[in-house]
Structure formats: structure tokens, C-alpha cells
Amino acid sequence: MIRVSILKRYCPRFSLVFFAVAIFAGGVHIISEKSAFFSDFVNRYVSSVIRGIFAVITSIFAISLAETLILFIPVLFAITLVFCVKSVNRSTRAGVRYVVGLSSVLSLLYTLFVFSSAVAYNGTPLGDKLELTQNPVSAEELYDTAVYMAEKIDEELEFVNYTYGGSSVMPYSVKEMNRLLLTAYDRASDEYRFIPRLTSRIKPIALSGPMTYTHISGMYTYYTGEANINVNFPDYNLPFTAAHELAHQRGIMPENEANFMAFLVCTMSDDPYIRYSAYMNMYEYLSSALYTADIELFSELYSSLDVRMKREMRAYNEFFEKYRDNTAADVSSALNDSYLKSQGQSAGEKSYGMVVDLAVAYVDSILED
Prior knowledge:
Radius of gyration: 23 Å
Distance between the termini: 72 Å
Largest sheet: 3 strands, mixed
Structural class: mainly alpha
Oligomer: single chain
């Protein structure tokens, strides 16, 4: 009885509920790490509902709520600290109850993270869902797959307009791009049952310019359900990046898998610029890997490219030069790398580039057919 009395005295009732739910969420998290089947089930029938509710509610607002919250973090921290000091000054009991209550709110955030996103990291690999056979990739396979992407780009070039400096121009607004991508995702949902249908809104980052110094081109925020993109990057990056964040919104969390789903969905679009974005971005991942694996094959490939492709990539390098080396990028990269590793992606930020394994397997399956 004494222990119960002490608990009531120092622990708010809502905190007991939040802590209990967090303990349950912790159990679900642990089980999901042990069972891909369990992870797939929760992700499909629980997490997708939570993500969908968040996405639909936040789509009402044109601005990015996640960006707004991030900007107000210093203010929220200051307010929290002020109330904490006031509670401690009022009495020891009030101070303890405040700290316990705050801790329980943090435990609730953990619960939301588990059920909206964390479980999805532990499901069946995307390659298995797509029935792709993945093997160690050779330089020759990288070369052949990159050639395939270059050929596909050639098919789209006549529909793409460029500026004098070489950059391609997206022929519509972000709103129209959003509509086209949702249509492509609906097609993907018809073909792949593990992709839930969802109508949502791409959120351009208001402070995209400053954000570019962090090298972040997009982000999915699991507490608001928003797919945010940095619109300061060159146009050909935007559809692919948006599709990547929309993949996260649909429960595809590993970065290499979100990259590949972005590629796959964009190639299913009726719009030539969205397809161009898919092939260009995938080509760059493949050519980067090829450069590391065999520079001679890389040089042979590069020399064969259409001049418009070369100008596009050259224009990107010129754009990115001012943002390349800075402290913000180093800090952002370290934080993202740590986060990805904490979610079981041992390669950390390098996992983005591991999309080439899926790309090679995918092209092999197409050529075999």
C-alpha cells in the first residue's frame, strides 16, 4: 500500500498509461527484430494505418509542420526548462511529478516511433518481395546496368528541356509533380500488394536553401507523417527524391529499398520527366559505384554518354560545389549515419548507395525475360 501511495503521489495517472504503452511497444519492437513475418504483419495492418492517419491530417496544411516544429525546438526546450525550474521551486513533489510526466511524454514519442516506423525496418527485404535474385555484383554488371540506364535516358531526352547552362527543367509545379507521383504509386499498389494506397501531399521545405548545406534533399518525419523535399536541388532530383520520401510514407524504411522503390515507381509514370529523373538518379548511383570498382570501365561508359547527360551532371556539380564542405553537412551526416545504424542498417549512410545491388538484379531479371 505504501508503494502504491508513493506512486500516486509522484507519478501522474497519464504517465502510468504512457509508460505501460511504451513497455508494450518495446516488446513489439524486440519481437519485430526477431521475426520478419511479425514485422511485415504489424507494418501492413497497424503501422500503415497510423502513417496514413498522420499523412492525411497533416496534408490539410500547405506548410511543413515538421519544419515548423524543428524551428521551434529551442523555444520548446526553453519553455520546458522554465516550467521544470518552477515546479522544483514549488516543491520536491511537484518537481518529481513534472520530470516523471515529461519522461512519460518522451516514452509516448518512442511508442509512436515504434508503431509508425521502427517495426518497418525489420521486415522482409524488398528484393525478396519483388522476387529479385541478388548476388555479389561485379564491375562488369555495374557497367551493363549503367548502360541500360543510359539507354533509357536516351529514350526520354527528346521530351526534356534544358537551360543554357545544361540543367534540365521540370515542366510543372511541385503540386503537379505530387499528383503524377501519386498516380504512379497507385499503379504500383495495384501490382504490389505490400504497397498501401495513400493520398498525401509533398511538402516543400521553406528553408530549402539553408538546408542544402546539410546535404539533405528530403526527409520523412514519422511524428507528422509528412514527406518533405528540399526544392533548392536541381529539378531532375526532385521527382526521385519525392518518390523516395513517399516510399518511407508507405512503410519502406531502409534507404536502399526506398531508393529502389522510388526508381521503380517513377519508371511506371506516364510522365517522361519523372521517368528521366528515375533513370538519371539511378545512373548516378551506378556510375559512382563503377568509378570505385573499375575506373577504366567508368571512363568508357562516360565517353559514350549523350552530351545533354554530361551537361546535366556537370551543372549539378557546379551547383553543389558551394555546399560540398561545411560543418553542417558533417554534423548532419554523423547524426543520420548513427540513426541508420541504430535501426539495423549496419552500412549507415552508405546504405543509400546499396541500391545498386537491387538495380543490377532488377535489370538482370528484365534482360532474362
